[in-house]
Amino acid sequence: MYPKLLIKEDKLRQNLKAVAKIVKEQGGCSLMIVTKALCADPKLIDILVSSSEVDFVADSRIKNVASFSSKVRMAGKKTVLLRIPMMCELAMVAKHVDLCFISEIETIKALDQEAKKLGKVQDVLLMVDLGDLREGVFFKNEGELQETIKTIAEMENINLYGIGVNLTCYGAIIPKNDNLSQLVEIAEKIEREYNVTLSMVSGGNSSSVYLIPKGEMPEGINNLRLGESFLLGNDTAYETKIDGTCDDGLILQAQIVELKEKPSLPIGEVGVDAFGQKPYYEDRGIMKRAIIAVGKQDVDIDSMIPLDERIEIMGGSSDHIILDVTRASEYKLGDIVEFKLGYGGMLKAATSPYVEKVFE
Ligand SMILES: *Cc1c(COP(=O)(O)O)cnc(C)c1O
């Protein structure tokens, strides 16, 4: 059945090796692989647990972590919850999560209670915001940082496993030697003042990888968390390709349901489209237009690239995408058109229940 998201296991294994070579061998960091973009598909988890390179398997959704926790633990690896937890999910966190990212004192106290009920000590990673302005204690708020660390130190069932930062997500701030060095400094200060050892100083996501080959990753960063660079081979700081990776491990396939010659300009008064946008048209005369049965409910139209370079995406709505196939005239009704995906396209296709995920 179509639409189909083909996930090529050999290519993902190749990417895993390539990022591990940089992050672990060259960078001396532990490797945390992030599964959320493929909704922690069990077949993806199998690839990760069978790899000796993966140290942590992480997701932002507790449901996903719960689905893979026993498999990952059995393989001797640790489960991680990336999104700072909701109060309502703390019981599940204590049960399924080995390392929980955190930023709020109240949540830490409540998590301590849940861990106590299970008789366990819960490892947490305190997020520090270095300016991207998503989660974490703001790095200039010394007082809050101190108070949070002090609270954790007082909790019987919480252990401060480390600190971490997230960049290039909300504020699009690029990780550099200078901002990541501030994280290392904060870690060293915590170790000095509280006489503790932090096991992890996590220096970010796929946008931090590029620093390692350039020799600019600060000493002291000892973990990276990778989703997009592993799945699509992208260095997300400067939109280059990471050495040794491929970008076609995930392919979206959709079927042509209509194929007709029509003008390129709509006829009649122009209002707004189905999403409230004013469309823009270019007059290309009569075009050969193909409609494929996949739409904005399943993909991000701006985040998919036809493998056949003669095809151009004209636009789409909830259930249809319109392609200009004038230069690719051999296509027939019922043919399959293939696309490479960007992050948004991958995320939506993997999440849509209407797109069949097929590992091969
Ligand atoms: C999603 C996420 C990642 C992975 O990001 P990529 O850009 O896909 O590598 C890492 N850390 C956190 C906190 C995340 O939410």
* Main sheet: strands, sense, barrel: 9 strands, parallel
Q: Indicate the mean pLDDT.
A: 97
Question: What gap, in angstroms, lies between the N and C termini?
Answer: 15 Å
- Which segments are poorly predicted (pLDDT under 50) over 5 or more consecutive residues? none
Distinct ligand kinds: pyridoxal-5'-phosphate
Classification by helices and strands: alpha/beta
The amount of beta strand, in percent, is: 25-35%
Order of helices and strands: EHEHEHEHEHEEHEHEEHEEEEEEEEHE
What does this structure look like?
It is a single chain. The protein is α/β, with parallel strands linked by helices and 360 residues long. The chain contains nine helices and 19 strands. Strand 11 (234-235) and strand 12 form a beta hairpin. The chain starts with a strand and ends with a strand. Pyridoxal-5'-phosphate binds next to strand 10 and helix 8.
Q: How would you briefly describe this protein structure?
A:
This protein has 360 residues and is of the alpha/beta class.
